[in-house]
Design a protein that fits this description.
- Two copies of one chain form a homodimer.
- The first copy, chain A, has 279 residues and is of the alpha/beta class.
- Chain A has a single domain, classed as Alpha-Beta Barrel (TIM Barrel).
- Chain A has ten helices and nine strands.
- In chain A, strands 8-7-6-5-4-3-9 form a seven-stranded parallel sheet. Chain A has a two-stranded antiparallel ribbon with strand order 1-2.
- In chain A, β4, α3 and β5 form a beta-alpha-beta unit.
- Chain A starts with a strand and ends with a helix.
- The interface between A and B is medium-sized, with 35 and 35 residues.
Chain lengths: 279, 279
């Protein structure tokens, strides 16, 4: 299945058959004090630095999250989107728990973006899906609902189905629903890795949708996180993860390696091109 | 399924459910000039260095290969085995294409070893399986036969079945057959990774046997091989690889990470223990 994202003129195709599309996670205030302080002054230099470094490292899409304590992100999110669009023509993934911020950002978006995210809660479905339909956006469906977070992969699949059905019912195309199987820290939940990998396999084989994931959470609180993130990435991609939200500066090598090993990179061209760009 | 290997007093259990058992690959003359020159003089100091470094890095079993041009390995292999057994009580994997060398080594082995390897060729089955039976050894079955190497995973599965059936017919227990799905360089054969991963999945789900693999071949001829080896290792382990033959100094971190992510390492104890040993 192919999901198409657009910038002003650019186009990115997320294909369930690969190769992997990388959504850069780094425009996000969590643990980035300098981003918070500059954004507070409507100074977008740090945003630009993060955009440039991620695109150079292999990001195809940029996640944009400007949530921090005290911010009015219904104002700051569209302003940041406009600032990025002035300099870069790459599809965006607008990331906020606040439907008003999502709506405000959708009004200024060029092209076709990702919304991060809707989930299976009635409140979320009612707020976000009509916005996705109205603005012709692709929506990420996170597999939690009014009962909270389940650790049963079959239940997570059922929530994914519910989100898909509700989206289709209001006229959103199936390919414009991308599922996030929910990755939690294995340091907190010992079977978090296995549950997420099995959820990916189920969503991929039963629903055939494109799959994204905040892939760095899994290693939170553990040493040498890069090894955990790379190993998890490889397994998740084999099971059907097609567009991870991750730090391309750290894991593009592992992603290119995985595509190559899965026979999705003829003559190792993308792998070697990435390797050369790192020299 | 559980396959039990033994040293003089030690025991290693290879379990299809994990965690992964590491077979150290480094006692092997390929690209190790100093090993060749010292072995030629029956000096085992380099062998000891390689044994120590691999065990410290996490090897549970040591592969022993002393094949190089001009060597009489029917003499040198048993001598090397005896030298290792004098200093280390770890199960061994005796590795030679020469049945006479295998037989000579089996005569001096303490415990229960691995034979690396038999394959589906009639000549190989006739020479190796009776030795495995006679000496109560575990045998690695490499999925090639008189027709050479196939790139069809279903055909590779059939060769694995043939080796298993022939072994069982002469009285070898099913659990004493470990399959090698054959990993070739993706630089030479673009679909080598995908074919091997699918063969592992088929052997695991249909035959339920333990699975080994010379896991470093896959990246031959490409840059930053460690990234390819680690990503391949993670995917192969998820599909059923239970006892890779690899360089523990380089990939034990990725293996421990993968076990942790698959929910096979309660409280991340083995992962953190390995991390601490590397400090």
């Amino acid at each position: 299945m192919k999901t198409i994202l657009k910038g002003s003129e650019s186009e990115v195709v997320i294909n369930t058959e690969g190769p992997v599309v990388i959504i850069g996670e780094s425009i996000n205030p969590t643990r980035r004090k300098k981003l918070v302080s500059t954004l507070s002054e409507r100074n977008f230099e740090v945003v630009y630095d993060l955009a440039t470094s991620q695109i150079e490292a292999g990001a195809d899409v940029l996640d944009v999250n400007v949530g921090f304590p005290g911010v009015d992100d219904a104002k700051l999110l569209p302003e940041t989107v406009m600032a990025i669009q002035e300099k870069y023509d790459v599809p965006l993934c607008i990331d906020s728990p606040n439907p008003y911020a999502i709506e405000a950002a959708l009004k200024v978006i060029n092209g076709k973006c990702l919304i991060n995210s809707v989930n299976g809660e009635e409140k979320s479905l009612d707020a976000i899906l009509p916005l996705a339909k109205e603005h012709n956006a692709v929506v990420i469906g996170l597999v939690m609902d009014d009962n909270g977070i389940t650790h049963d992969p079959e239940q997570r699949l059922r929530i994914a189905e519910k989100i898909l059905n509700r989206a289709v019912k209001i006229g959103i195309c199936e390919e414009d629903v991308v599922i996030d199987p929910l990755a939690m820290a294995v340091s907190a939940v010992p079977d978090a890795g296995a549950v997420t990998l099995e959820t990916i396999r189920l969503v991929s084989t039963r629903l055939g949708l494109n799959i994204t994931m905040g892939a760095s959470n899994i290693s939170f609180g553990l040493p040498i996180r890069g090894v955990l993130n790379s190993s998890f990435m490889a397994m998740a991609i084999m099971n059907g993860l097609s567009c991870p939200i991750t730090n391309p500066v750290l894991v593009t090598s592992a992603i290119r390696a995985t595509d190559l090993l899965l026979g999705r990179d003829d003559y190792a061209m993308r792998y070697i091109e990435h390797y050369k760009s790192r020299l």
